[in-house]
């Protein structure tokens, strides 16, 4: 690089008023490189021409210009950076062209020039630069640090350079050191504005992080400089940085005689002032900094070096004794971390002070919540501060116990064990016998003591040893338990308490037990934690465990009045006794303190509570929960022996109890307990399910064969439990089929058993529930299992004589050959056939689309047959089949398989002349003249076959509509035909009852639109695997709406219009609002007409309500505004009439709410209606219902305040 | 107007929680004292930014309703004996009840016995149709009353 020096520009810098020495030499190596592209292939080759200075210099001018807007400046920086990135402009050229801006004595311009250069560097951090360029730039910015008027740019530039990564070329260590020196010498951090201070700290942090070796050599200058920089900082953003800075700094000098050790006092003096962090910014503050973050950063700084110990610990202990809860909480957290960071040697001397501070805190802040069994872990923010303090104190205690065990000194634990206060508290809470109504004070003392003891024993086996030696035996004495008390004594019930049980003793005892259990459990996760079976505490514990179990058991089982003082006391004692039993039974297998027999007895005691005293809900719930916890524990630890015990002593006994007919217990309670016990493990759930299944079948027989009403009720609750709890549980456990499939098969077996299952009692609710269960069972099964279920059902169906006799079979097969003369009324469904058909239909409804169905044609005809008899499930099954029918079958043609087209043909062309005079489906389609219709009714005057046919078509239409099949149009046109035929004439022509029937037909045709578009729970939904074309409702709406509207316009008969409006109402109220609002202009007037037409009949109240909801939707929607404005008179007129709608309260309420919404429309338009509305609303003030009255008051206020200062009108 | 406030330091009481009314779908909901109280409890005092309930001018017990005869009787207690705002409060109550209840109710508004220096004349003034109508035609008074009613939470 010998030629480099030939091209040097020396730049003279001005800093403030005094010109500085020429300090920056920029080397223009690139000019030479461009001449030798082969030597420097990495640089831009001649093929990428340099940008003409005139093209970018304007950007520089724009940036430096005073009048430019901030975003213009930003754009010009971006433009220049882009040029540099693309190698169209070299940094060297940039600097040379900007020379004037960088060197001018005008400090404003100079400052802007520096910022521009720095910003460009910030934007090209990812672009690789050569070492000399970086060196020159660093040198430049280092010198600029002395120019206080242009400091901002210098800081940005330094940051951009220091943050560069090694692969793109970074600053050299020596340069960094020079930079740091210049910084420490020239920059007065605390005199700068907040943004610049922030940058300063970032520069320092960057230097410390990236060049630790070079920085160390700066020695005390660095430490002193940083102390100076961070002193008195107040901005939270900067504080976060300074805390981190201190943390990094002290880690650079770990040497005990190093500079930090000397400066520890100064540094801590600066840091200590911030403790405890007092931070008042709101959460919504844009700084995005929380108090927790600040406090955490400060804590890390505190803990960064042990040299802070003599300063920090006294401060923390002092603040711990303050009355400010936040200060207490922070002190505890800091102390906790400091103990582990500073180490035992340094902290040992504080042990006594720490202990007494912790003791005071725990005793004054312990509350019930801390120690109550099985409370849900609440979110920290939700916890009261007191509980947080107590928790932090216990945490700190735990750390102290495990850390402060210096070999030659007294361990921390001794302080606790030998503490007089603890001793006193122990004697007080447990020794004084029983206090019936414990005072608040003694209660909190009890909780504090319990938490201290249990925390201490949980730390390690050694700790546990000492605690047990000291406290366990006295406790056992108090409870009257001795190792020699025998099982027999308990069994003979001669085991008695000398005095009333001390709740305190039980509480402490249970706390200790659960601490032991946690200790043994922790060996699973912490392998270094070793517990030997001959550890003293464990031997001691084991000696007492079995008698203790029996003692606790007797407290639970025999709530003898002599040991219990009052109800509260009983709850407390029994609650903790149950918890104690639960703890004793949930030790890991190898550490189990009690014998197998005692384990079984414990389970038996708990189960006895469930079975014997279900009336005592408190104890009952407790024992059930304990049993559930035990079950979960067994499941979690895969303890096979205990699992067998549990199965035998809990699951089976509870099942036995549930099966007993014991009227004293609500069946729902029994079912609940069984289900919850079952939930603890898969095996148990299987047992429970098996029982439930058998019970369900037994009850079906009882309810339906013996007509037992009470069994029917029980059956319903069992079915509910089965379908809503058990099935979803197995679904989650991924073994749905295993349970569901046998259930379905067993149902069929039951149906097939002619002798046993002889239904002679029909309860529609029971049948519906069973059908629903069946659907759920089948819908969850896999296709293979579904095939088996259908097959089984079909076989049962075939073997049923009453359904498939020779004669009937002929009737089904003859369905499409004309002329067979079997009379329709001879087909009458027996109860059992009804069950069979219903269940078979349910299975078909729930099938997956790809599940093949045997004998499709015959089944289709069978369903058609029943469908025409008005059997709704059969109709729905038919519709489901049509809906899910695969488009084309590629499988080998079997005789019983038919294509979709064939099936459709079969249904539509089927001539049912064998059943009724005229084929409903085909004739219905072809019927043209009124005479023909008359004729139809003439022949079938008492059986509304036509209605059934219509309903069947509706469901089939729904199936077709949902899969998006064309054929639905035909069906809809048929409905239209029914709607449109002139009713007046028919009524005139026929004076007898058939006219009524005719209007019923038209009405059914109108209601068909509801079925077509509504979402049904019974069938054709996602759960039952229906084929659903997206937006099918919207499509249908836009295709039918014009037809309906023009028909309404053309029809002149009042009756026809009424049914048309009905159909129209169903269509628009079931279509998604967004689709309707698009046509608001067209829909709104007929919607209002429909409202007035339908108000006359109370039966239509639901339709009225859904129309009103639609209207309110249009009112609230912005795109409906125009239509509303055009019809304002009409809308208000109708709404005011609906205010007095007598049949439904929510209609009145909604009408008034709509009026309130309308009061927001432009005043000029609504003002004329004001008196009318106010009059109607005044009447509503006298409404029967309070909610309507309140709405009316609001509405009155809203309307009366329109364009008037007066409330009068 | 008198310079300064008539009662500069009123005693402020806590608001009672609103009782959620049970929804019986089939029975009629008769107008009762709580209904009336709910509608007037949030009226603001003419002098202070507190509601009548907070100042204990009104309570549920001071209201009686006879649905059959169609009568509402409100007895309120001004905060001080010589309160000249008593008539304004009464006027607010009357106007509010006019908006919230059907016109067939006869509304009587009285100050509670012994709570006001001019008890008799205030009662007379509040229940005189003509004087009420005249008062509401006075624009200043009207504005004052409406401002008091505006703070209503309902």
From TrEMBL, chain A:
<comment type="similarity">
    <text>Belongs to the MET18/MMS19 family.</text>
</comment>
<protein>
    <recommendedName>
        <fullName>MMS19 nucleotide excision repair protein</fullName>
    </recommendedName>
</protein>
<feature type="domain" description="MMS19 C-terminal">
    <location>
        <begin position="714"/>
        <end position="1158"/>
    </location>
</feature>
<dbReference type="GO" id="GO:0006281">
    <property type="term" value="P:DNA repair"/>
</dbReference>
<dbReference type="InterPro" id="IPR029240">
    <property type="entry name" value="MMS19_N"/>
</dbReference>
<dbReference type="GO" id="GO:0097361">
    <property type="term" value="C:cytosolic [4Fe-4S] assembly targeting complex"/>
</dbReference>
<dbReference type="Pfam" id="PF12460">
    <property type="entry name" value="MMS19_C"/>
</dbReference>
<dbReference type="InterPro" id="IPR039920">
    <property type="entry name" value="MMS19"/>
</dbReference>
<dbReference type="GO" id="GO:0016226">
    <property type="term" value="P:iron-sulfur cluster assembly"/>
</dbReference>
<dbReference type="InterPro" id="IPR016024">
    <property type="entry name" value="ARM-type_fold"/>
</dbReference>
<keyword id="KW-0227">DNA damage</keyword>
<keyword id="KW-0539">Nucleus</keyword>
<dbReference type="GO" id="GO:0051604">
    <property type="term" value="P:protein maturation"/>
</dbReference>
<feature type="domain" description="MMS19 N-terminal">
    <location>
        <begin position="95"/>
        <end position="363"/>
    </location>
</feature>
<keyword id="KW-0234">DNA repair</keyword>
<dbReference type="InterPro" id="IPR011989">
    <property type="entry name" value="ARM-like"/>
</dbReference>
<keyword id="KW-0677">Repeat</keyword>
<dbReference type="Pfam" id="PF14500">
    <property type="entry name" value="MMS19_N"/>
</dbReference>
<dbReference type="GO" id="GO:0005634">
    <property type="term" value="C:nucleus"/>
</dbReference>
<dbReference type="InterPro" id="IPR024687">
    <property type="entry name" value="MMS19_C"/>
</dbReference>
<comment type="function">
    <text>Key component of the cytosolic iron-sulfur protein assembly (CIA) complex, a multiprotein complex that mediates the incorporation of iron-sulfur cluster into apoproteins specifically involved in DNA metabolism and genomic integrity. In the CIA complex, MMS19 acts as an adapter between early-acting CIA components and a subset of cellular target iron-sulfur proteins.</text>
</comment>
UniProtKB/TrEMBL annotation, chain B:
<comment type="similarity">
    <text>Belongs to the MIP18 family.</text>
</comment>
<protein>
    <recommendedName>
        <fullName>MIP18 family-like domain-containing protein</fullName>
    </recommendedName>
</protein>
<dbReference type="GO" id="GO:0051604">
    <property type="term" value="P:protein maturation"/>
</dbReference>
<dbReference type="InterPro" id="IPR039796">
    <property type="entry name" value="MIP18"/>
</dbReference>
<dbReference type="InterPro" id="IPR034904">
    <property type="entry name" value="FSCA_dom_sf"/>
</dbReference>
């Amino acid at each position: 690089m010998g030629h480099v020096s030939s091209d040097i520009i020396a730049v003279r810098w001005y800093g403030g008023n005094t010109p500085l020495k020429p300090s920056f030499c920029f080397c223009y190596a690139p000019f030479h490189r461009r001449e030798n592209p082969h030597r420097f292939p990495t640089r831009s080759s001649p093929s990428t021409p340099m940008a003409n200075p005139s093209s970018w210099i304007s950007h520089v001018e724009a940036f430096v210009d005073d009048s430019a807007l901030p975003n213009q400046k930003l754009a010009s920086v971006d433009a220049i950076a882009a040029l540099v990135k693309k190698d169209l402009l070299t940094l060297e050229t940039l600097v040379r062209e900007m020379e004037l801006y960088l060197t001018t004595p005008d400090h404003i311009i100079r400052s802007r020039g520096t910022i521009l250069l720095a910003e460009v560097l910030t934007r090209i951090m990812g672009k690789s630069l050569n070492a000399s360029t970086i060196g020159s730039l660093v040198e430049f910015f280092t010198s600029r640090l002395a120019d206080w008027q242009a400091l901002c740019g210098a800081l940005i530039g330094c940051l951009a350079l220091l943050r560069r990564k090694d692969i793109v070329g970074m600053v050299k260590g020596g340069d960094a050191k020079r930079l740091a020196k210049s910084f420490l010498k020239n920059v007065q951090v605390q005199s700068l504005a907040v943004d610049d201070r922030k940058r300063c700290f970032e520069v320092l942090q960057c230097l410390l992080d990236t060049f630790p070796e070079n920085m160390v050599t700066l020695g005390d200058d660095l430490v002193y400089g940083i102390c100076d920089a961070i002193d008195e900082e107040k901005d939270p953003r900067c504080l976060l940085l300074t805390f981190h800075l201190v943390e990094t700094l002290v880690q650079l000098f770990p040497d005990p005689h190093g500079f930090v050790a000397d400066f520890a006092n100064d540094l801590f003096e600066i840091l200590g002032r911030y403790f405890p962090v007092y931070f008042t910014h709101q959460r919504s503050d844009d700084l995005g900094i929380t108090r927790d973050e600040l406090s955490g950063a400060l804590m890390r700084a505190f803990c960064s070096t042990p040299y802070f110990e003599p300063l920090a610990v006294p401060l923390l202990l002092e603040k711990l004794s303050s009355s400010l809860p936040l200060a207490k909480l922070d002190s505890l957290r800091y102390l906790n971390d400091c103990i582990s960071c500073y180490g035992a040697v340094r902290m040992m001397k504080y042990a006594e002070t720490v202990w007494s501070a912790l003791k005071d805190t725990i005793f004054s802040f312990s509350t019930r919540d801390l120690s109550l069994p099985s409370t849900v872990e609440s979110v920290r923010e939700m916890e009261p501060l007191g509980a947080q303090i107590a928790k932090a104190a216990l945490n700190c205690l735990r750390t102290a116990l495990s850390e402060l065990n210096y070999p030659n000194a007294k361990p921390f634990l001794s302080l606790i064990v030998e503490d007089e206060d603890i001793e006193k508290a122990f004697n007080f809470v447990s020794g004084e016998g029983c206090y019936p109504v414990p005072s608040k004070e003694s209660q909190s003392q009890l909780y504090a003591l319990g938490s201290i003891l249990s925390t201490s024993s949980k730390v390690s086996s050694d700790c546990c040893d000492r605690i047990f030696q000291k406290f366990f035996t006295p406790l056992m004495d108090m409870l009257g338990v001795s190792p020699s008390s025998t099982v027999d004594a308990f069994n003979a019930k001669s085991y008695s308490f000398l005095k009333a049980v001390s709740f305190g003793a039980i509480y402490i005892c249970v706390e200790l037990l659960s601490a032991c259990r946690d200790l043994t459990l922790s060996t699973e996760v912490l392998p270094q934690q070793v517990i030997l079976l001959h550890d003293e505490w464990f031997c001691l514990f084991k000696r007492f465990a079995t008698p203790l179990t029996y003692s606790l058991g007797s407290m639970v089982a025999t709530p003898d009045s002599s040991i219990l003082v009052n109800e509260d006391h009983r709850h407390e004692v029994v609650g903790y006794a149950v918890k104690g039993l639960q703890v004793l039974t949930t030790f890991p297998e190898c550490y189990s303190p009690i014998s197998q027999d005692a384990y079984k007895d414990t389970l038996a005691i708990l189960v006895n509570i469930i079975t014997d005293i279900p009336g005592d809900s408190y104890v009952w719930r407790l024992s059930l929960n304990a049993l559930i916890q035990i079950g979960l524990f067994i499941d979690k630890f895969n303890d096979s022996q205990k699992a067998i015990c549990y199965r035998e002593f809990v699951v089976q006994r509870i099942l036995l109890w549930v099966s007993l007919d014991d009227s004293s217990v609500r069946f729902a309670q029994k079912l609940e307990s069984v289900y919850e016990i079952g939930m603890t493990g898969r095996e148990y759930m299987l047992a429970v399910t098996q029982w439930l299944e058998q019970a369900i079948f037994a009850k079906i027989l009882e309810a339906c064969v013996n007509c037992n009403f009470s069994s029917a009720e029980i059956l319903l609750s069992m079915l509910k439990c089965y379908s809503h709890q058990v099935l979803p549980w197995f679904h989650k456990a991924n073994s749905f089929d295993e349970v569901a499939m046998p259930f379905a098969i067993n149902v069929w077996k039951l149906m097939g058993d002619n002798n046993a299952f002889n239904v002679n009692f029909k309860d529609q609710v029971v049948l519906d529930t069973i059908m629903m269960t069946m659907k759920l069972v089948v819908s969850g099964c896999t296709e293979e299992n579904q095939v088996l279920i259908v097959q089984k059902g079909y076989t049962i169906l075939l073997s049923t004589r009453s359904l498939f006799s020779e004669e009937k079979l002929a009737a089904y097969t003859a369905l499409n050959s004309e002329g067979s003369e079997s009379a329709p009324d001879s087909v009458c469904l027996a109860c059992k056939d009804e069950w069979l058909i219903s269940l078979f239909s349910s299975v078909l409804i729930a099938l997956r689309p790809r599940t093949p169905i045997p004998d499709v044609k015959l089944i289709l005809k069978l369903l058609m047959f029943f469908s025409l008899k008005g059997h709704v499930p059969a109709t729905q099954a038919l519709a489901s089949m049509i809906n899910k029918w695969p488009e084309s079958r590629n499988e080998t043609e079997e005789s019983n398989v038919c294509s979709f087209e064939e099936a459709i043909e079969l249904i539509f062309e089927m001539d049912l002349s064998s059943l009724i005079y005229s084929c409903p489906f085909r004739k219905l389609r072809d019927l043209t003249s009124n005479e023909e219709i008359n004729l139809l009714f003439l022949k079938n005057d008492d059986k509304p076959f036509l209605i059934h046919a219509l309903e069947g078509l509706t469901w089939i239409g729904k199936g077709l509509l949902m899969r998006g099949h064309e054929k639905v149009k035909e069906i809809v046109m048929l409905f239209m035909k029914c709607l449109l035929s002139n009713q007046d004439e028919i009524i005139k022509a026929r004076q007898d009852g058939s006219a009524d029937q005719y209007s019923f037909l038209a009405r059914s045709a109108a209601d068909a639109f509801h079925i077509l578009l509504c979402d049904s729970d019974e069938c054709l939904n996602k759960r039952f695997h229906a084929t659903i074309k997206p937006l099918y409702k919207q499509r249908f709406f836009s295709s039918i709406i014009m037809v309906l509207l023009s028909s309404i316009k053309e029809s002149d008969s009042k009756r026809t219009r009424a049914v048309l409006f009905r159909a129209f109402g169903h269509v628009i109220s079931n279509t998604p609002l967004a689709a309707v609002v698009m046509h608001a202009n067209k829909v709104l007037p007929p919607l209002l007409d429909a409202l007035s037409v339908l108000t006359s009949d109370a039966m239509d109240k639901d339709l009225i309500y859904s129309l009103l909801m639609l209207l309110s939707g249009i009112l609230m929607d912005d795109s409906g505004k125009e239509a509303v404005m055009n019809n304002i008179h009409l809308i208000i007129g109708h709404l005011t009439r609906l205010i007095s709608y007598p049949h439904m309260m929510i209609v009145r309420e909604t009408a008034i709410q709509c009026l309130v919404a309308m009061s927001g429309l432009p005043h000029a338009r609504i003002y004329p209606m004001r008196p009318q509305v106010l009059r109607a609303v005044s009447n509503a003030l006298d409404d029967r219902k309070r909610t309507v009255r309140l709405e009316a008051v609001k509405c009155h206020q809203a309307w009366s305040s329109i364009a008037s200062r007066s409330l009068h009108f | 107007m008198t310079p300064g406030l008539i009662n500069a330091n009123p005693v402020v009481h806590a608001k009672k929680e609103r009782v959620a009314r049970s929804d019986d779908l089939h029975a009629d909901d008769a107008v009762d004292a709580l209904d009336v109280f709910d509608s007037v409890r949030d009226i603001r005092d003419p002098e202070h930014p507190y509601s009548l309930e907070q100042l204990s001018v009104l309570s549920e017990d001071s209201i009686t309703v006879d649905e059959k005869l169609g009568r509402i009787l409100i007895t309120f207690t001004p905060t001080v004996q010589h309160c000249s705002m008593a008539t304004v409060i009464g006027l607010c109550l009357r106007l509010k009840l006019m908006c919230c209840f059907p016109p067939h109710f006869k509304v009587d508004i009285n100050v509670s016995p012994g709570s006001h220096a001019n008890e008799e004349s205030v009662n007379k003034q509040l229940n005189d149709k003509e004087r009420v109508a005249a008062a509401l035609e006075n624009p200043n008074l009207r504005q004052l009353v409406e401002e008091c009613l505006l703070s209503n939470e309902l």
